[in-house]
Amino acid sequence: MSLQKTVVITGASQGIGAGLVKTFLDKGYNVVGTSRRVSETTTFDRAARLELIDGDVGDPETAKHVAQRAVERFGSIDVLVNNAGIFVTKPFLEYTIEDFQRLSATNVEGFIHFTQSAIKQMLAQTSGGSVVTITSSLTDHPIAGVTASLPMITKGGLNAITKSLALEFAKDNIRVNAVSPGVVDTPLHEKNPTEFLRSLSPMGTITAIQEIVNGVVYLTEATNITGEVLHVDNGAHLGKW
């Protein structure tokens, strides 16, 4: 059993998730990272404080297995970062119910499975904890030409439940927050024209992965903040520009 704090990170194999793993390890946390094939990644040095577990976040058994392994190896779950998510754009009339089911399984059901498992363990530990979820600034300010209506049903729901859970578990010292990015320099956008991506925020910039990671770490360690949706989006949530 470790006296260090333990963080569980979903969607840990690349992009923001990989950045989170590296930064939390650098800060001295024990890290349990999960994604469908995270064990195959060569991104991380295999540190003593790192456990990688393959699994689909939409499967409730994955959350149970990850929570069990985190406690067995490190003795606690102190932080959960719900980073796993999928994003599909197409005109609303072209979305299918299968699209919605796939989005919901990862973005919403995955959140429910992992957050329930983590909070149950945090309550048993009686030492509080932190949950941070990655959402999207498009929930606040849609952008013409970015047809993401169905993904935003799921991401908007995550913003709403963040506030509800923050209030529900405030007296248990379990804080629940979210980071709401705009366009981030991840593999998701590697084929998109840079100038188009720059046009999607009033600052005309693309957010680096580390900026999102820094927002997550800030909310994780800011002991007086709960129910916050922190926009790290170069002003994209503000309105027309």
From TrEMBL:
Pfam families: adh_short_C2. The keyword Oxidoreductase applies. One of its GO terms (molecular function) is oxidoreductase activity. InterPro entries: NAD(P)-bd_dom_sf, SDR_fam. Keywords: Oxidoreductase. The keyword Plastid does not apply. It comes from the Bacteria. Belongs to the short-chain dehydrogenases/reductases (SDR) family. This is SDR family oxidoreductase. It comes from Rhizobium phaseoli.
